Structures are given as structure tokens and as C-alpha cells.
Amino acid sequence: MVFIQPHWFLGLVPLLLYLGLVLRQRAALNLRRQTLFFAARQKGEELLPLLFLFGAGFFLLAALAEPVVYRQRPVFKRSGVDIAVGIDISKSMLAEDAAFPISSKELSPLANRLNRARMMVLDLLDNLQGERVGIFVFAAQCYELVPLTTDYGYCRYLVENLDDLAISAPGSDLVAGLECGLEMLDRNPEASAGIVLFISDGEDLNNDLSALEMIVQKARRDGRKIYTLGVGSLAAGLIPIRTPDGKQVVGYYKDEAGDFLTTSMEPEKLQTIAAIGNGEFRPLGREKLARIMVEKMVVDLNKSGLSAVNENLPYALSPWLLAAAFMVFLLGKFTN
Fold this sequence. Notes:
By secondary structure, this protein is an alpha/beta fold. The protein has helices spanning 12-33, 43-64, 113-126, 152-160, 174-186, 209-221, 267-276, 290-304, 318-335, and strands at residues 2-3, 67-76, 81-88, 132-138, 142-149, 193-200, 224-230, 237-238, 240-242, 249-252, 262-263, 281-283, 308-316.
């Protein structure tokens, strides 16, 4: 218990002096009243009203001193959550088979997978409330674009200015991408919860599923959650080559044998990552998913208790002490 204004207890000094004076005056009066016809009052009859008066005064002074007790309670804090967002920037992300929300303002007239992923990240930034967010991009290798920060404006600037025409990496390594995101989270062990949001078409250079499962299982043991978003169509399509201004298609990418490269969203690995990583997989379509995904993450973290921190919450006792002072005062009046 802590008293915010303990100086009010100094009022006990004049209260005790007053009660002592009253007690002395009553004793003298009682002595003068002793005659053949008036018996002296018992000491208990003299003391009881004064004790009630002292009790009422004590409770009143204690209430004015503003006593507070602190109770530990788990509190959900979104500011203690770190989110590492990964964007696949492999060549297959230039395929123009992505579905965009009907009411969206596109960053570019190109309806490719990368622009759909960028739109999702920008919408996500608009729905964050104090969480730290970091952004990394990956293909055959991974690159950290923005370290964990609450500067959403800076994140927005870099995501908006990703140059999709400069992409040349022919494939993506999902293991390398996950390792990059988890490493970003591991650099801040003070965070109460860590999330990886993985946006990809699911095509993977590495066919070793066991390596992918191993890293996701380790992340799960460390208390991380991994959510995946699939972008693109399930139907195979070509990857266009455009002019530098992006206005005209001049050809289509080919493999080393001279055959046209075809690509489609492969959701199987993304679903496996989300299932093992205690998260959720969703395909990016015409629905705006940012608000839904943020609410889902918040609810999942709240249920798991990963984002809860113990805080000392104050509980004021003054109202109870004022009520006690009033009750004791009334009892004193009735017994006087």
C-alpha cells in the first residue's frame, strides 16, 4: 500500500489533542456532578463516543491521504509486438495474374503479383497501432529493407518505391526468406511477441521440405507465429518482359533451354508453413485483407498470452475509507 499524500496523517496530532481535551473536560464535569442524586457516569460511557469520533477522523484522514494498492494483472500491449513482413521479389512475381480489390487505387497499372503484395503491405501499415514492423525482400537471397521500427511513413516510402522492373532473380528460396524474418525478430528479445508475415507465390527453389519444416518448428518453439499470404493464380501463365516505362510487353521470359517460363501460385508450402507456425494461410484476392489479418493476429496473440505483460495497476482505497468514516461517525451519533 502506498499513500500519495501522507502529510494528511499529521491531522492525527490535533485530533488526539482535541479528544484528550474533551476527555479531560468531561472528567471534570463528571466530578462536579457527583452528588447524592447524580451518580458518576461510567468510563466506558465517556470513552465510547470519543472512540467512534476518533475512528471517523482517522478514516477520513486516511482517505485524504489517498492510499493506493497495486495489483499485478496481465495486460495486452500491441506496442510490444514485432512484425517482420517478407515480400517475394523473384521473377515469377512479375506475372500479371494477381487479383486486386475493385475499389483500390493501384500503385501501378501493372496488375502483377508484386504490386498486389505491395498493396497488401501498405494497407497493413494503415491498420497498425503501435506495433513495430520490419520489411525484408527475398528471392534466391534475402535482403533486409527496413529494420524493426514504428516509422510507418518510412516503411511506406520504401515499399512504394520498390522497382519491379529491376527484378531479375529467377526463383525464390523460402527457407532463406524465413530465416531472414526470424533473425530480425531475434534481434529484439525484449518484445513480448514476434510475427512473420510472408507474402509469396509459393514457388521454391529448394525442394527439401524437411529443412523448411525444421526452421518453422524452431520458430514455433521460440513462441513465434508465421502467417502466409499467397499471391497469383493457380493456373499457369507466362511472365512478361516490359519496356522500361512498363507500358508495352516486348516478350516473355524463357528458361536456359529457350522454353517460355510458366508460373502459378503454389499454396502447398505456404499452407504448411502457416499450419506448423501457429498462423494462418490466406490467398490474396479481391478482398482487402489487411484489417482482417491484423485483427486475426491480435486475437491470436491475446488468446495465447504471448503479447501479455504484467503491469501494476493501481486500485484506490479512498472511497471505501470515506464510507467507513461516515458509518463510524453515524454509529458514534447513535451511541452518544
